[in-house]
């Protein structure tokens, strides 16, 4: 019997070995997270994380899988991606967030 696939820390779907995947630093490397904790995520989920928040925001506000799942844009994305197969991948919908100062 084969071992179960690891689970994506964002969408909580299985991550098959052939699915595009990567390790997400919970605190971005440039914000002090080098050598810090990482979590396995689908590549599409990783792209969406970085399209949804700046590195400063990720370090300060969205630095756990639980808080990431409560981010408004990511919550919508998770609801959408959970309806897709575990190996689904496409370009990040909606594009990158604008980083203009407010």
From TrEMBL:
<protein>
    <recommendedName>
        <fullName>HNH endonuclease</fullName>
    </recommendedName>
</protein>
